[in-house]
Amino acid sequence: MDLRITESPSVYRHLEKKSVDELIDLMNREDQSVAVQIQQALPQIGQLIKAIVGKVSAGGRLFYVGAGSGGRLSVLDVIELPTTYGVAKGVFNVILAGGIDRLADALEEREDDTKEAWEKLQVADVTSGDIVVGISASGTTPFVLAALQQCKEHGITTGCIVSNPDSPIAAASTFPVEVVTGPEFITGSTRMKCGTAQKMIFDMISTTTMIQLGRVEDNSMVNVALINVKITDRAVRMLMEKTGIADYNEAKLILLEHGSVKQAMEHVLRN
Fold first, then answer.
1. Is 80 a catalytic residue?
2. Is residue 20 located within the same domain as residue 117?
3. In the record, which residues are listed under signal peptide (predicted)?
4. pLDDT at 98
5. Looking at the predicted structure, is the pLDDT value of residue 237 above 90?
6. Catalytic one among 7, 22, 109, 111?
7. How many of the other CB atoms lie within 10 Å of CB of 75?
C-alpha cells in the first residue's frame, strides 16, 4: 500500500508559536471531522457488528488483535463489559502486542512481531466459531496483519478497523471497516483522530452487540454487576422504577437476593 494518509503532514504549521486557546480550538475542529468520517463507514460497521452478534449468539467469541493506542483502547472497552452488562469473562477478548499485563508500557517494538498474536490465539483455542478483529491505524501493522492472514488460512472470520484505504489488513478481513480520518494534528500521531475514531467504533460495537444479545432492556443496564455502593443504588432505583416497588429497602433486599435487576424483575413479575 502506497497511500499512507495517517502519515501525511499535518495541515497546521509552527504549532509551537500558537497559544493554548489557538491549539485547543484547532484540535476541536479536527475532532469534529471524526464523526463525519465514521458516518460514511456506518454500513461497514453495521456488517461487522452483525457478524459479531451472529458468532457470539452461537456461542463463539470475539478477539480484538492490536498494538499501540488502538490495541490499548480495545482493552479498555472489553474490560468494562462483564461489569456493565454482566457478560461472562472470556466472550470478549484482546490479544495485545506485548501482553495485557504490560498495558501501561508503550511496547511499540512488539507491533513488528509476526508470530505472537497467532500463537496466543492458538493458546486460546480460536476456532471458526469465533471472530477476530484487527485494530491498526495504518492498516499495515505486522502483528495484526500476520494474525488475520493466519485466521484466513484457517477459515476463521475476520474484521478490522483501519484508517487508511486499501490496506493489507483490510484485504485480509472478511468484514473491513475503513475510517479515513486524514492527517493528524501532529503529523503521524495516530493516538489523536485515529484513536478517537477507534474509541467511538468500539463503543458502537460493544453497546450494539450487548443490546442485540438482550443484555439491555428499554434503555437500562439490567444486567449490571453489583460491584459497589453507587452501582447498587442505581440498580435499586432501576428496579423500583420498572416494577413499581415503592419501598427502597424492599427493592434492595429483592435485588441482592437475585443478583441483578433483570433477575429481580423476573421474580417480581412471577409473584
1. yes
2. yes
3. none
4. 87
5. yes
6. 111
7. 17
- In this predicted structure, the answer to whether residue 110 has a pLDDT above a threshold of 90 is no
Mean pLDDT value across residues 48-54: 98
Please state the domain count of the chain: 2
Residue 16 annotated to the active site = no
In a domain, 222, yes or no: no
Q: Is residue 153 part of a domain?
A: yes
Kindly report the average pLDDT of the chain as a whole number: 94
pTM of the predicted protein model = 0.93
Given 172, 187, 212, the domain boundary residue is 212
- The most distant pair of C-alpha atoms in the chain lies apart, rounded to whole Å, by 69
132 and 243 share one domain: no
State the average pLDDT over residues 83-111: 85
- Which residue out of 22, 30, 80, 108 is catalytically annotated? 80
Supply the pLDDT for residue 112: 85
